[in-house]
Write a structure and sequence with these properties.
The chain has 4 helices and 4 strands, in the order H-H-E-H-E-E-H-E. It is α+β, with helices and mostly antiparallel strands. The protein folds into 2 domains: 37 residues, Orthogonal Bundle (Arc Repressor Mutant); 78 residues, Alpha-Beta Plaits, CATH 3.30.70.1150. The protein binds nickel (II) ion.
Length: 137
């Protein structure tokens, strides 16, 4: 575990006020925790912008259960990129809708590619890729 180092930063009063409001609205207990997460978020975005880095993605989907060819296409895409698929979870929401989350691992390009391929299929009603990465130990 990294040693925690304390340092001070200077901010214009209005920016500090904004920071505190956001910190409270997001449920953070301290400025330190909020600023740490802001820095991590920036580092994760940076990692996603570098080609060849290993990153993770969580793709959440809602789709039409009645479109049988869609389910087949979804499975096909996953079978053709098994190296990037860590796992998938499927729940049956109701008679017509399925929810699936697919956890992906690989380069930003590979993950974006799969997410675009899947998100563009006919019958997908919702598709959202959450970009994740490790940035500290
Ligand atoms: Ni289902």
């Amino acid at each position: 575990m990294d040693e925690t180092i304390r340092f001070s930063i200077s901010l214009p009063e209005s920016l500090l006020k904004e920071l505190d409001e956001k910190m409270i609205n997001k449920g953070y207990a301290s400025r330190s925790e909020f600023v740490r997460d802001l820095i991590r978020k920036e580092l994760i975005e940076e990692k996603w912008s570098i080609s060849g880095e290993e990153v993770f993605g969580v793709l959440a989907l809602i789709y039409d259960h009645n479109k049988k060819e869609l389910a087949e296409r979804l499975i096909d895409i996953q079978h053709h990129t098994p190296i990037n698929i860590v796992c998938a979870t499927h729940i049956h929401i109701d008679h017509h809708n399925c929810l699936e989350t697919i956890i992906l691992r690989g380069t930003p390009e590979a993950i974006e590619n799969i997410a675009i391929k899947i998100g563009g299929l006919t019958g997908i009603k919702f598709s959202k890729l959450t970009r994740a990465a490790t940035v500290d130990k």
